[in-house]
């Protein structure tokens, strides 16, 4: 008798989907990684500073040192390998291959969609949501560009996300609660050790913790005023939030104050040993003074932007722009006097998000706010077993919505009072949660027959949008017509 074929288990499809997301991300980040044999954008700082550690040259940087350590490790490993040795330059202070100072960023960036999938799964326990979030993350252009050069934002984001992932693991695990919480604190410290704005990921934990205690206080007041029994934690739609408040105060402060502070101090020690001009406290003052001296406006940098312009993506950043005589001519790496005209080609690397993914994600955040406002009106009745429910939103999903919005706001609002020149890539932390908010909506649409076509349409449009703008993510040669076709707004140029 012929054996009947066994259906593939859901877990197998889930793993295959994650592998596919990773391979897509990996391939796009490593393809043509050494295409521009020069220092692109802020590689003029970070590649040089990283190499300074290797050659013993003293320097001052306006950011903590962890990203430069990592790039330096990548350079050291890259120099031991035969890969990419056909494109070398001495712009960072030593003869290095471009591959050597970029490959670790590319590999790290390839992991970000997987970490986003892991967070989505821990939030919802839904594989479909995790896969959709991972797919959309793999289709983002800004993360792709940032991953292909020796820059530091991918490290900031992945460490912040790992801190949140371990926090979510701790809220669903009773056996390794303190261990996961401690690891969470370590990764939050690592994020802040890339740039100070890595602290915004840690700030989201404090905000969620505070909101959880507000809910518990309201519940306690309601119980004492009406004589009703306290609602059990597993009946709350925000039960992980409730469990966050059950962490002992000393454990909370240890993991989210003491451990991050100690790890941050520890990370600085190699830098201070090699650069003894300032001690730990003084170097923090110097960094603060440096950022206070940075001005704003077009006279400081042509791609300065405001925090509110990030949401509709009004001002992306050109990381590399060179015009060549033809597609077969060498790619200029210095100042080029050529202008873009018929017959010539442009090599442009634009740090721009996937436009339609970006715009859809911004709309998704508006939906999340609306959902929270609707639920806020019925919060006083949550202590009742017969609390009213919105027909389209199961109570347990309120935790997902709350987590995403609080994390989004925690990464965006601190930029509101900042007066120095800031750039679109400072929005990367917030954009993760806007993207996850869109993925949450798409996942819900997929599970509803009436709205399934909308979910399919969103993913299809985001995919086509990614393919269309891919040449300016990868710096592929474009004719003047092809380049202008992708610059939809004057502020993008």
Order of helices and strands: HHHEEHHHHHHHHHHEEHHHHEH
Q: How many E-type strands? A: 5
Strand content: under 5%
For the largest beta sheet, what order do the strands appear in spatially? 3-4-5
Which percent bin holds the helix content? 55-70%
What structural class do helix, strand and pairing data support? mainly alpha
Biggest β-sheet strands, sense, barrel: 3 strands, antiparallel
Radius of gyration: 24 Å
Number of helices: 18
In the predicted model, the low-confidence regions spanning at least 5 consecutive residues are 1-7, 228-238, 378-392
- N→C terminal distance: 67 Å
- Mean pLDDT across the residues is 89
| Spatial shape | globular
Considering the chains and any ligands shown, give keywords for the structure.
5 strands; mainly alpha; two-stranded antiparallel sheet; three-stranded antiparallel sheet; 59% helix; disordered N terminus; globular; single chain; 493 residues
3D structure, described in words:
59% of the residues lie in helices and 4% in strands. By secondary structure, it is mainly α. Among the domains are: 124 residues; 192 residues, no CATH class.
Architecture blueprint of SSEs:
Blueprint: H1 10-30, H2 43-55, H3 66-80, E1 88-89, E2 96-97, H4 103-124, H5 127-138, H6 141-147, H7 153-171, H8 177-192, H9 199-226, H10 239-245, H11 249-274, H12 280-293, H13 307-310, E3 317-324, E4 345-351, H14 355-376, H15 397-412, H16 428-446, H17 452-474, E5 477-478, H18 480-486
Antiparallel strand pairs: 1-2, 3-4, 4-5
Helix pairs in contact: 1-4, 1-5, 2-3, 4-5, 4-6, 4-7, 5-16, 6-17, 7-8, 7-9, 8-9, 8-11, 9-10, 9-15, 14-15, 14-16, 14-17, 15-16, 16-17
